[in-house]
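HUMAN: Spend a minute on the protein record below and explain its fold to me.
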Amino acid sequence: MTTSDAVIPATRAAHPTVLRRSVQREADGVVRMVDDDVAEETPVALEYNGIAHAVMLASPSDLDNFALGFSLSEGILEHARELYDCEVVAGCDGLTVQMRIAAGRFALLKERRRSLTGRTGCGLCGAETLAGAIRQPARVTASAAFSASRLQAGMRAMGAQQHLQQRTGATHGAAWMNAQGEIVLVREDVGRHNALDKLIGAMAARGIAPDGGAVLLTSRASYEMVQKCATVGIGFLAAISAPTALAIRLAERTGVTLVGFVREHGQVVYTAKG
């Protein structure tokens, strides 16, 4: 079987996020050769003030959002204004996001510097100590609340805006739903952690306050997803799948409302304020 590598541009993507390949499709006993859209997955290196910090496998779109969101959700930066410059540079083996950050934040980063080698679905690879892996964010002050019907409607609306998923079937989505139940932002990635970081970065870049709405996820709610939300002050997290026990315990400690299995006819509330 032969393949082709036609590049298909995607929205807000400086680099191709979709490739078109010739594939053998079988259905009802019939075999056909057809063109298929496949999600790209690219090594993305994050550099701070010229020093390499992390390499993640990601969809090569919205990398400015990704870099800012990762920096905030990992506690490298406290505010978006501490990121002075961000440039994506293409290399032979992938992409490098070169960031220039405030000197004080860079000094703190060097003190706790670690080497992360991320891969899809794994956000703790390379952590040098248990304490470094299991960070304890401060308790959030957000108190947003949403009905089951509003969360279900939000999930449907998010799905309609997941254009990369519609084309490839291979990506996760993270969305911000405001207090009125409107989907304001959607970001996608082959990695669920990356999708959330892209969303957090997009919110920060647009000045969207994290205490007035909810994050919706098309994945399970792992510990790190709750950790990222709590770190930036997001107090409501709803996922289409299940949380882990560790995620539930962290949500309880940090005051994050955690809802799972948000489907067409129901949901499960694991933690809630009140």
Notes: The two ends are 59 Å apart (CA to CA).
